[in-house]
Write a structure and sequence with these properties.
Elements lengths: L8 E5 L1 H10 L1 E5 L20 H18 L1 H8 L3 H13 L2 H11 L3 H5 L1 H22 L2 E6 L5 H7 L6 E5 L13 E2 L1 E2 L23 H9 L1 E2 L8 E6 L9 E5 L5 E6 L8 H11 L4 E7 L6 E5 L2
Helix pairs in contact: 2-4, 3-4
Length: 303
């Protein structure tokens, strides 16, 4: 893909942060704990139980479905309905004590002894779970957006319209990290590490699906945030211990647009224009104005 085929991505920021971005030629990656949404990449309960506990919960659910909803269980597990229905009839004909014995059996370590491969797979996944927790806690998150004219984002992230919006065009020719930005998923259901290995939800992810699975875990937000049209890059194990953030350099020629807020201080305008053009002499610079007759912004080119 050629440089001009990559769409421009936008970063809202305050005036002070904008000066640092230009001076240091770098962009901030924050920890998950630094995000303004406490649900965002929140891992303390994302991995709140071990695989042994999850398997026990799944076994309890399966036993309950055998007795009360065999058709649903047959669909979930891809089993012939006749087989599940027969097991369901047998279970309903038994005593409560027999049902309790069955539940105790399927949730006990006896199953592991009968199927050592199951235990080996679960132990391997538990190791992956712990490694992923460590990677996420030290991961760095960079957020951008596809929009430069969102009124809420100008208010929330650009210092009540006193800040700026940077426009970067990712350049694959220089292996820019901006090329790795991907869209955030907006969902009312929070992500879970266990969904792909839950027997009632589907099969384990294939290796080629793991990148999408990782994005599902780290780039899912509630639907209330959909207005941001966010793009995100998460880099595992990026931030050194004891630090809340780190910075990665961008390539100066990737800065192709700069939008000054409607309330941007007029006496500081020439200063930031000069600084931006020192990075890329071809950067296009605009000043935001309030649209007439509409709740919207227009942008007047000043350089």
């Amino acid at each position: 893909m050629l440089l001009n085929e990559f769409p421009v991505v936008y970063k809202y920021t305050s005036h002070g942060s904008a000066e640092l971005i230009i001076e240091n030629r770098s962009l901030r990656f924050g920890r998950p704990t630094e995000m303004n949404d406490p649900f965002d990449a929140y891992i303390d309960d994302l991995f709140d139980s071990s695989l042994r506990e999850r398997h026990r919960d799944a076994a309890i659910a399966i036993v309950d479905m055998i007795e009360h909803d065999p058709a649903a269980l047959a669909r979930c597990l891809g089993l012939p309905f006749e087989e599940v229905a027969e097991a369901s009839s047998t279970m309903r004909a038994g005593t409560q004590g027999q049902r309790d014995e069955l539940l105790a059996l399927v949730t006990s370590t006896v199953v592991e002894e009968l199927y050592p491969q199951l235990k080996a797979e679960r132990d391997a996944l538990e190791i992956q779970r712990r490694a992923l927790i460590a990677q996420l806690r030290d991961s760095g998150i960079f957020c951008a957006t596809q929009r430069k004219d969102n009124l809420l984002m100008w208010a929330h992230y650009a210092e009540q319209h006193r800040g700026v919006v940077f426009g970067f065009r990712p350049d694959p020719a220089v292996d820019s990290f901006l090329c790795l930005l991907g869209p955030v998923i907006y969902s009312a259901s929070r992500p879970s590490f266990y969904d792909p290995i839950d027997p009632l939800k589907g099969a384990r992810p294939k290796p080629e699906d793991m990148r999408a699975f990782n994005r599902y875990l780290t780039a899912t937000k509630g639907p209330e945030w959909a207005y941001e049209e966010e793009l995100r890059l998460v880099v595992p194990s990026l931030i050194p211990e004891g630090q809340s953030a780190t910075f990665l350099p961008f390539h100066p020629h990737e800065l192709v647009e700069l939008y000054l807020g409607h309330r941007f201080a007029a006496e500081r305008q020439d200063e930031i224009v000069t600084a931006a053009r020192s990075l890329n002499k071809d950067v296009t610079i605009f000043k935001a104005k309030l649209a007439k007759g509409a709740y919207a912004l227009t942008f007047e080119r000043i350089v």
